[in-house]
Amino acid sequence: MTEKPGRDPDVLTTAELAAKLGLSPQTVRRMAHAGQIPALKTGKDFRYSWEAVREVLRQPHHQPGDTANDNDKGAGHRARQRARTGAESAD
């Protein structure tokens, strides 16, 4: 991928973030709309700070009534797991 001059490499498009997290762009947009990940609305789409998203996904997320069953945590849990794995291998 060729970067445009002056573009901050930490700022990702929906497609770029989806690829890093191993999720579909639709799931990433849904998470942004729901406030599950930090995003900046730019016209009809979003931009994301990789560091900010990674930090949010590293945090434990428990809501009242949640069970401890890992098999039922959904895309947010899977994204956090992928971000942790990616972060550990990159560090």
TrEMBL record:
Residues 57-91 are annotated as: Disordered. Residues 11-59 form the Helix-turn-helix domain. It holds the Pfam family HTH_17. InterPro entries: DNA-bd_dom_put_sf, HTH_17, SinI_DNA-bd. Coiled coil: none annotated. NCBIfam families: excise. This is Helix-turn-helix domain-containing protein.
